[in-house]
Amino acid sequence: MDKPETIQPKFVSVVDQLFDRLRAAIIDNVLTPGTKLSEAEVALNHGVSRQPVREAFIKLANESLLEIRPQRGTFVAKISLPHVMDARFVREAVEADIVKLLADAPDPAVIADLRRQVRAQESLIGGSARDFIAADETFHRTLAEGADKARAWEVVVEMKAQMDRVRVLSSQHFPVDRLVAQHLAIVDAIAAGDGAAAERGLRLHLQGILKDLPVIKQERPEYFS
User: Fold this and answer.
1) 186 pLDDT more than 90
2) Which domains occur in the chain, in start order?
3) HEC per residue, 19-88
4) pTM across the whole model
């Protein structure tokens, strides 16, 4: 009898681990815009040498999350409104095509998974906004994977860091019940094979940030460049 294939765990480098931790802290505004970061302190806090910290800093700077200023230090970057708007534009374009692809050939298994997620999201109404953000992320990733566009979703994820920072800041204003209802409408349209309705629902869903931005910028002007 053949032995079952052993699945090897994916190796994650020290640089990638540091990058993920620091990226999450910046997006969640644990590390707020303008915070100065020290290679030595980060290395000490994470029990690593300074070299992987330096490499993680460079990766974060490439996503415009850090500013590395020669002779002055490394700082958490302020939120760039042009970057937020560009990310929203790209995300909407990509996901609009994704939901149309799903509606062209509705997959019962994908639809069942999405409906299960929406039911779980309903239990988050009135609860933690951060929990809903995580559930929302899973929902949109599932849409992409269901359309066999996981790589396209990863490209979106790489672009939308600045957009996610705004989403976290605006979490206190989240109309979670409305967002869940929008998710359900998208799923219903996909299940019905109505690509036009799925696209309209998706675009409406993602354009909510356009209303949030002026409010957040007024509340936290020091966070924006």
Assistant:
1) yes
2) 14-76 (1.10.10.10), 81-223 (1.20.120.530)
3) HHHHHHHHHCCCCCCCCEECHHHHHHHHCCCHHHHHHHHHHHHHCCCEEEECCCEEEECCECHHHHHHHH
4) 0.82
